[in-house]
Every structure is written in C-alpha cells, then in structure tokens.
Amino acid sequence: MAEQREPFTVAIIGGGIGGLFAALSVHHHCAALGISINVYEQTSEYKEIGAGVGIGINAAQLIHKLGLGEAANKIAGDRNGVWLAFRRSDNGAEIVTVPVNDRDAVKQLPMLRSEFLDLLLDSIRGRNAATLHTKKKCTRLVDIGDKVRLEFADSTSATAHLVIGADGIHSSVRSQFAFDNPRYSGKIVYRGLVSIEDLQPWWHLSTYAVSWVGKDKHLLVFPISDNKLLNVVAFVSIEEGKLGDFQESWVAVGNKEEVVSSFQEFEPHARRILDLMSKRPSKWVVNEREPLEQWIYLNGKVALLGDSAHAMSPHQGAGAGQAIEDGYILGKALQDYLKSQSGDLGKWMQAYQTLRLPRAQRAQRTSREAGEVYELQGEGLRGKTFDECMPELRNRLKDRMNWVWLEDIDV
C-alpha cells in the first residue's frame, strides 16, 4: 500500500481582509492538490476596525472569481455611476466627477468592513477552507528545514511549510526580517458613519460618493451597507511634533466638536454631514510604510502580503484591493508549485513577489501623492488659490485611478 503523502501546510498570520482572502484563494486554487490551511488571529475574535472600505473593480473581479461576487454586491453601496465627485471645499463647486460603470455584475464595491469580513468568514466556514484560530499572537518564526516553527505568546507552537504574514502595518512577521517602523504620513483622520436616511431630505447631489478638496484637509464620503450608511472620512494635515501622546496611541476616540471646528471653513453641505457624526468619532494617525524590496524569506517558506508588505495611505482606496490581488496571485503561485512537484518553493514565491511588488509599490507612491493633491500640497498646487489650481486639479484627478482598475492581473 502506497504511503500517504503529508499535506502541504499553510499558516496565515492575521485574520483581517488580506489574510482571510488569501485563505480562500489558496483553498480555491490548491484544495485538490492536498493542502491544509490554518489562520492565526491574535485577538479574541475576527473583527475589522474602521468603518468603510472601497474595493475597486480590479479586486472586485477577483472576488467574483472566487465565487463571492454576488454576495458582495448585495452588501455594497451604490455610487450611481460615480467613483467620486470632487468638489471645492470653499464653495462646493464641482472640480471633476470621475465616472465608473457600476451597472455590470463586476463593479466597484464600497462596503462596511465588518460586513465584508463576515462574508469572508462565512465563506471559509461554508467551504471548510481553513481552520480558524484566535488569541494566537505570533512572536517568533524558526527555520526547521523544510518547515517553519511558529511560536506564540501563549507558549504554544505550530509548524507549516509556508507562513504567510498578513498581520498588518505593525506586522510581527515582517519585524523578524526587516527592521523598519511605520512612518507618519503627515495626516490624521476622523472616521464615522451617518445614516443616509438622515441626509435624503436635503441632499442635492446625484451621488453620495463625494470628496471635498481643501487646503491641508479634505473630506471624503461614500455609501456602504446597501446604501443604508454613509462612510465619513475627514483628513487633517498636522505636523508630527504637534501630535503629542496621540502619536503613540495610533488610534483613539475623538470628539465631534474638534472635527466640526477643523472644517468650519468648508461649505455648508460638507459641514452638515459632520454635524450628523456621532459625538465620539474614531481618530486615527495615518501611517504608512517605506517600500520594502524583499517580501520572501527563508527560501520561500515565509511570504508577506497586504499591509505587512506594502502598507499605504488610504487616499486612493487601493490598500484592501492590493491585499486581495496579493492573495489571489499567491494562491496561483502556490498552485503552480504544487503541480510542478519541483521542491523549489522559493522559485514560485519569488514569482509572486516579482509580479506583485512593482504594482503594490506604485500604489503606495501614488496614494501618498493623491493625499497631497486632495489638500493642495502637491507640486504646482501649494501656495496657489483655488481658482489657480483648478486646471491642474482636474488634470490630476480625472484619470488617476485607471491604471489601478483596468489592469487584469489574472494572466
């Protein structure tokens, strides 16, 4: 009787959107090849912090390819054919409106983070795609030949042929191989949710997806949760030296009065939205990471994914989509490795990095640049009046997302 081959084991560190989508992708591409997947989340439950998340059509098509598209469409907001309507903060005048085709089955997916995470979790459980663990903070990885030993803070351990670090901007996996720290982007952000029903009596625009561009601050709103909620994201540029204790806390609870005060010069409709925020909106330091030139370690037995590899500012709504692209391509690369039976895992993980790194790093760079444009800080904008900036703003805003959305990475 032939000896049964040991299944290839995958350990995913981090149970956020990137980690769970990676689990589904690996299962989708590799289940028939003999594989076992474990997801290790350090908190006591699988949950997302933050409110809304924007998924571009580039990532939406990959969600559909894993069979989740119809369910995702049901919980997404409706942008009414508009990605964002950019408007002046001082008088509300239109700068440029960026259209999208959101009538096809594969479309933009603005969603409540917790609802999208629940969809991923339900899919994993329904497909028996992975074993989900909680209260497992990975503290150390040890190379033990053809596997890696994972050591956890609770003194337990596990082994895997492949470890995927999907544990976010403060990644413990990354910290064992790269000795850098998150970098302050120059901005803080207030986040909250507003009932769209409360807006309807006075809302005068054709879409709920709007960005008010202002000097050293900007306000973004878009619909989520099947158009029941408006995601409100208010950015303010602040020098690092003025953050005080907030710099160390990363995320805290703010108060509505400070938000309203910060945006008092914005036009009335924008301020009216802020008046509807809760008294205690969340308050975040917007951090990012410097580009990292190596995502693969221990001869391919460790791979970084998502914010662990390329944390970026949120100004293009591209971060979650880039993590989804990572997870999809990593699943395909692992499928090719298992089919090849070559024994050279490093070759295939390097192929994953080669394909993904340039695109993710471009998203990092252009997201930072977008934040500067939205706040009249970029080259050719700083120090000018709104009227002087208008032609350059239109030029920089109208097509800036095409390269993200229109490339089909599943080649």
CATH architectural designation of the domain at 8-76 and 106-181 and 290-373: 3-Layer(bba) Sandwich
**Biggest sheet: strand arrangement:** 5-4-13-14-15-12-17-16
Q: Tally the helices.
A: 13
Average pLDDT for all residues: 94
**SS content category:** alpha/beta
CATH top level label of the domain at 8-76 and 106-181 and 290-373: Alpha Beta
The gross shape turns out to be globular
Q: Unreliable runs, pLDDT <50, ≥5 residues?
A: none
Largest sheet at a glance? 8 strands, mixed
Distance between the termini: 40 Å
Measured by DSSP, the beta-strand proportion falls in 25-35%
Write up what this structure looks like:
It contains 13 helices and 19 strands. Helix 1 (17-30) runs parallel beside helix 4. It has helices at 17-30, 57-65, 69-75, 113-127, 172-175, 246-249, 256-262, 268-275, 307-310, 319-340, 345-374, 386-397, 402-405; strands at residues 8-13, 35-40, 52-55, 82-88, 94-99, 109-112, 131-133, 138-143, 148-152, 157-160, 162-165, 183-195, 210-214, 217-224, 229-237, 251-253, 282-288, 296-297, 302-304. Strands 5-4-13-14-15-12-17-16 form an 8-stranded mixed beta sheet, with helices on both faces. Strands 7-2-1-11-19-18 form a 6-stranded mixed beta sheet. A 3-stranded antiparallel beta sheet has the order 8-9-10, with no helix packed on it. It has a domain at 8-76 and 106-181 and 290-373: FAD/NAD(P)-binding domain, CATH 3.50.50. It is globular and about 70 Å long. The longest helix has 30 residues, at 345-374. Strand 14 and strand 15 (229-237) form a beta hairpin. The chain starts with 7 loop residues before the first strand and ends in a 6-residue tail after the last helix.
